[in-house]
Structure prediction request, 656 residues.
Amino acid sequence: MAAGKTLIRFENITKRYGKVLAVDNVSLAIEEGEFFALLGPSGCGKTTLLRMLAGFETPSDGRILIDGQDVSRTAPNKRPVNMVFQSYAVFPHMTVAQNVAYGLVVDRVPAAERERRVEAALGLVKLDGYGARKPDQLSGGQRQRVALARALVKRPRVLLLDEPLSALDAKLREAMRTELAQLQEKVGVTFLFVTHDQDEALAMASRCAVMNRGLLQQVATPSDLYEYPNSRFVADFIGSVNLFEGRLAVDEADHAEVIAPDLPAPVYLDHGVTGAHESTVWVALRPEKIELHKRGEGRAPPALDDAPEGRNRVPGVIRQIAYLGSESVYDVGLEGGRTVKALRSNLTRRDQEDFTWDEPVWLAWHACSPAVLLS
Amino acid sequence: MSGAPGPLEYLRRWPIRAWLAAVILFLYAPLVTLMAFSFNTSRRNIVWRGFTLDWYRQAFEDSDLIAAFGNSLAIAAISTVVSVALGALTALLLWRFRFPAKPALEGALGLPIVVPEICMGVAMLVFFTQVLPWPTDLIWPLNLGAIIISHISFSFSFVAIVIRGRLASFNRELEEAARDLGAGEWRIFWDVIAPHMRPGLLAGALLAFTLSLDDFVITFFTSGPDTTTFPVKVYSMVRFSVTPEVNAASTILIVLTVALTAIALRLSGGAVARIEAGEGL
Prediction:
């Protein structure tokens, strides 16, 4: 993402409903041309934030700037933003073309220009020739395209999308992800979308903001969110993770060690951690970053070139196997009762036969794989 | 569809069929008889003598009956227009706003529907003699004011409830979408809310019209010698003798109300079907 200029700025936004704090002092800057995701569980305040930007809610505190202009008190119909609603909200009594033209009619755009722009917008969302249809003659996916065209035809500075894919079935949802990303690239408009689906956010967004209980947890690119989460909440919310509580035993410039009671061996890291010595930290290990090795009678622990002996290798027994086709997820029981999830890609047709129930195994991971979390 | 009736094929079992036949007989036989004898040549409603349209001609030549019919239509038309306007506004008020007396108003709205008609009639009689004596020497149709007002007072409740029900299925995101696209309050109402209300308005109007057209009890208490409606006139004719002319007049009324009710049901039924199809969402 080229460092563009800031388009939207939330400054210390707080929203209270009576005593309930829906959004808690959120500050966030979104750049021009971004495909930005607001991600979080339901009730985390992401939709409230979106609706405040659209103008349907007024912040209790703070300011919202678009292009440097304070729009916090501007009516929704006077803001340079347009929205695609969760239900699409396509006007049922109007044809597709009338729906798309509506915003232009309200703005008194001359008929000739209006027709041209409606035509172009319908082409953009691949609905050429559908202009005369009524919404009840369209599928859910087509109705969403109408809603997209209707919002984009007004040439907004920002397009807001409220759970854009939640109403579509699984196959269509995946196809629509790619298409939305392509559409955004083509029109160059900044997209801001709200979702509770992490896959959706990771697949489409150029940057994501993760929210929880009204607070902004982390703002990062999808891969940074996944690989370098800044808290247990983010690590757990994005993807699947094994979390171990422990204490920071060694913390040098080029390596660190965490001793976790649940793990028989210390966790060795190839980088330093900026935390107080002996402080409580959490180690986050993604299942796909844990290797499975055979541990038959007398088999030595696997060799790791980046971790000293006795580190990053723990013995366990396979308790459960979930075969998912492209991969298998193994629940491995450790001494002391802790269960660890390890994921193994089925690279060949026979890979899933390598390990079986109750088989003793070694779990191993590289020194660069664990993420250390301070909160 | 042959052999022994399946577990859910109730209509192929004789007790159910007998029951159905009995229901149809008791419900509709009187109506069919009434209609059939309006074409009877005999003066008495007992023996079938032959087919004639004389009674219809006689009914149309009866100037009192025609005047009453004209009154009924005028009352129905005026009270429909007023009660649809009032009912729509009430429904919008209850749907859109929150205010202290809202539960009380919602309860009061159902009152004209649950209060026995005879009580409404007596109440109207007292009201129009004691509180607001309506002058009967005004030009037509203003002389029908008392009846019109009492019809509005009960039919607007039905209209409001029908429209309220329709509004309940309105997706608020449609309103927000219109606002988001630049529309102000007034435009939102005319472009988005009013089109959604339309089936409710039509169904409410037809309901109000048919209710007014065939109302007898309340009208009986509020009508005067010069302000008779069709049902009241038929009643007074019956008191002298039940001639086939009454049958003919009643048949016209039945056909008229059934036709209008069918249209009303079709319109509101269509609305229901559209909501189920997801269009109202």
Notes: Chain A has two domains: 6-234, 241-373. Chain A touches chain B through 26 residues (CB under 8 Å). The mean pLDDT of chain A is 91. Residues 17 and 60 of chain A are 9 Å apart (CA to CA).
